[in-house]
Each structure stands twice: as C-alpha cells, then as structure tokens.
Design brief:
Distance between the termini: 52 Å
Number of helices: 7
Number of strands: 2
Radius of gyration: 20 Å
Structural class: mainly alpha
Largest sheet: 2 strands, parallel
Strand content: 5-15%
Shape: elongated
Strand order of the largest sheet: 1-2
Order of helices and strands: HEHEHHHHH
C-alpha cells in the first residue's frame, strides 16, 4: 500500500524557510491522522520530494529534520550555492537586455532591470503565457545574437539545437521575470553584484 500527501505553501515566491516549516507541519498532521484512526495503517517509510524551489526545500528539510523522513529526492533544486544562482540569473538578465533591448522595446516588451525591478505588465504577461511567443520570435529572427547571448551568459545548452536554445532562454527569462522583484523584496535589496 502507498499514500501521498502534499501541501501548498502559505505564499508564492521565495519562501524556503516558511516552506520547510510547512513540510514539518504536514508530517506532524500525517502522524496525528494515523494516531487517530484504526481504519488506516501508518506507512512503513516516508519520503519527501520536490523539484526546483521544492528541491531546495526538500534538501533543507531533510537536513533540519532527518528523523521525520526515511529519504529525500531533490529534483533540479538550487542546492549548491543560491547566491551563485542569483548571480547567474542576474548576469543573464543584464546580457539579455544588452543584446535585445531594442528588439524588445520595438515589440512593446519591457523586461525592466535588476535595479528598478520588473514591471507588473511583464509579470502579468509571463503569468498569462503571453510573453514567451514574441520573445521566442525575436530569438528566432536573430539567431546570431541569440547564440552570442547563450555564449556570453554561459547557458548550458546544445547550441546546435535552436529549439533547445530558445526553450532554455525562455526558462531563464521566466525565472527572472517571476522572481526578481520577489527576491529583492524578501532579501531586502538587489543581491546581484555585477
């Protein structure tokens, strides 16, 4: 027999420390549920898993509360060096504006910058899925510039596969648009040091 429990964190964005406690709370609720019933048997093993920010939450949770879980699986979590990840993404944003600012502005796209933040319009367009298509068109129509951006930003992607290049760039763009303001607000300042 198996089971599955999940939680939605109390907020969106960079909420790692609160999320660790949310996971601990979920485990305590799970234990309380099994202690209150004879209809269901408690699991023999309990594992925690998560991807992306959830991968970071997974790694930190198992480190902080190793007795609560029998194992953990962190998938694509930023568990190496978060500061370096912020620098990598900041470099990408600066280079993206350097290479494509004129093309973006010509299409009415303003991605903002790390100092002044990202406009609510860009965030909204990203949430609605309206941002990737015009940006992808710019990348497709400027393949030389696109590959130069990949090279300068050190994007780990097969440069001979334009579809993979564009997918990687759009994911980096999404991360920047959706998290720049949140990271700056929660960590109280621009952490980018270029």
């Amino acid at each position: 027999m198996g089971g599955y429990a999940t939680t939605s964190y109390r907020d969106n964005g960079l909420i790692v420390l609160d999320a660790i406690e949310d996971i601990r709370n979920l485990r305590e609720r799970m234990d309380a549920f099994f202690a209150s019933t004879t209809e269901y048997f408690p699991p023999d093993s309990v594992f925690i898993g998560g991807s992306s920010e959830g991968g970071l939450v997974t790694a930190l949770t198992i480190e902080k509360y190793p007795d609560l879980f029998d194992g953990a699986l962190s998938i694509c979590g930023s568990i190496g060096n978060f500061y370096k990840q912020l620098q990598y993404n900041g470099n990408f944003h600066v280079l993206l504006n350097y290479f494509f600012l004129n093309e973006f502005l010509a299409k009415g796209i303003n991605l903002g910058n790390l100092k002044d933040g990202i406009s609510p319009l860009a965030i909204g367009a990203c949430k609605l899925g309206a941002l990737p298509l015009p940006v992808a068109d710019i990348f497709i129509n400027k393949p030389g510039k696109t590959l130069e951006l990949v090279k300068c930003a050190k994007v780990p992607v097969d440069k001979s596969d334009l579809e993979a290049v564009i997918t990687s760039l759009l994911e980096l763009l999404r991360f920047n648009v959706m998290l720049t303001n949140d990271v700056t607000d929660r960590l109280e300042g621009v952490l980018f040091n270029n």
